[in-house]
Design brief:
This protein has about 400 residues and is an alpha/beta fold. It is about 40% helix and about 20% strand. The strands form 3 sheets. A 9-stranded mixed beta sheet has the order 3-2-1-4-5-6-7-8-9, with helices on both faces. It has a 6-stranded mixed beta sheet with strand order 11-10-14-17-16-15, sandwiched between helices. Strands 12-13 form a two-stranded antiparallel sheet. It comes from Pseudothermotoga hypogea.
Length: about 400
């Protein structure tokens, strides 16, 4: 468990909000007490108000004692009081003298007076120079503000480096220190925690704009979850396949909540085919390749964001009759109404189909079917929130 004692940055790029995002990204648990309130955005600080020790102490007293404390923007004298409150905890202080826009947070003499109360301090090279500090066994100096092709960090006579992600990013020091404390709480040595934190920060900055956006990297867990959800229904697809797989093959597409293109939709590349009467998966779930069902669900999600999954299946009148009997919402599509120019294109038909359904119904139904057209196999499409919901609907209408 990590205790965060840091300022509140309403922009979310640094401070308590960034601390929590970083630790959540690592899967580390955190508690937090706000030590200062700032008025700022990603490019400028307008004011700061430090909270009194009595306020902090009251909140800290309600929390269990931590093993690790990450200290951010704080009244420097409160670092001594934190040491007295937690004599056995490992305190890491990310010193911030001044914002990049020139707003002065701390006086050098106040910081120097309280340095020894922290087990480890983290600061950038400019701040280290102003304080007369060098990298040693209790001081980590970061070089992100200097020029060069590499980002360098110095600690205890050693130099660490990683690739530089070019750009101006608000909150890098905060994010680095939060990650460092997170890795320390996992049992990493300080040197290994530095390496891991630098590697993580590079990954975050590659997907960030203007400020550290660790939440974008956190989206990766949803990609893994999408694969798991599709893998979960593979046995059901194998069981039902002889009844559901059409001549063109079957697919199930599951869109990520923020998806904008087919490569942000999980699906089975190559579709699911019947081979000697048995379902065969050409590929495991992947975000690679394109799919007509992916285009369908992207369009459906545009109108109804919670509709993130769709499958296509063989058309049989008895399936439609059963769906109606069970109270599912069913829409019959007349493919002859499809514009001629779309029929000649490889893509466009699915988007037109879903758009027409929504225009007619004002919602995305459980089932959209058509009885075929020249060169078009009759087809049923089943929509839902997720793969399990979709396959449950399929099971209802075929069994």
């Amino acid at each position: 468990m990590v205790l965060l004692v840091s300022g509140f940055d309403p922009s979310g790029g640094a401070g308590m909000l960034q601390d929590v995002k970083i630790l959540s990204l690592l899967g580390a648990s955190a508690m937090g007490v706000v030590s200062a309130h700032t008025v700022q955005n990603s490019s400028k600080v307008f004011s700061v108000k430090f909270r009194s020790w009595s306020d902090l102490e009251q909140e800290l007293s309600a929390l269990p004692k931590p093993k690790f404390v990450k200290i951010g923007l704080i009244s420097p004298d409160h670092v001594e009081l934190l040491r007295k409150t937690y004599p056995n905890a490992f305190l890491v202080w990310n010193i911030v003298l001044e914002s990049s826009s020139g707003f002065r947070f701390q006086r050098e003499e106040d910081v120097l007076r309280n340095l020894d109360f922290a087990n480890l301090v983290v600061l950038n090279s400019e701040e280290a120079s102003r304080l007369g500090l060098t990298a040693d066994e209790r001081t980590i100096v970061t070089g992100g503000h200097s020029n060069g092709e590499k980002i360098k960090v110095w600690y205890n006579g050693k130099e660490f480096e990683t690739e530089r992600v070019f750009g101006e990013f608000h909150g890098t020091g905060c994010a680095f220190t939060s990650a460092l404390v997170g890795y320390l709480s996992f049992g990493y040595s300080i040197e290994e925690a530095i390496r891991a934190s630098m590697e993580l920060l590079v990954k975050i900055l590659k997907v960030s704009e203007k400020q550290v956006q660790s939440e974008k990297l956190a989206r990766d867990w949803m990609k893994f979850d999408a694969f798991q959800e599709l893998e979960k229904i593979m046995p059901w697809l194998e069981e039902l396949g002889p009844k559901t797989i059409p001549e063109v093959g079957q697919n199930v597409s599951y869109a990520l909540p923020w998806s904008q293109n087919e490569y942000e939709v999980a699906k089975f590349p190559g579709r699911i085919r019947l081979k000697e009467g048995r379902p065969t998966f050409v590929s495991c779930p992947s975000f690679r390749d394109v799919s007509h069902t992916a285009r369908m669900v992207l369009t459906a999600k545009r109108f109804c964001p919670h509709v993130r999954c769709v499958t296509n299946m063989r058309y049989k009148k008895e399936y439609i009759d059963r769906a109606l009997e069970m109270g599912l919402k069913v829409y019959r599509l007349d493919r002859s109404l499809e514009p001629k120019e779309l029929k000649e294109l490889e893509s466009g038909s699915m988007e037109w189909m879903v758009k027409k359904v929504y225009e007619d119904l004002g919602e995305i139904p459980d089932i959209v079917y058509d009885e075929g057209f020249f060169g078009k196999e009759a087809m049923i499409r089943v929509f839902g929130r997720n793969p399990v919901e979709v396959i449950q609907k399929v099971r209802k209408i075929v069994e």
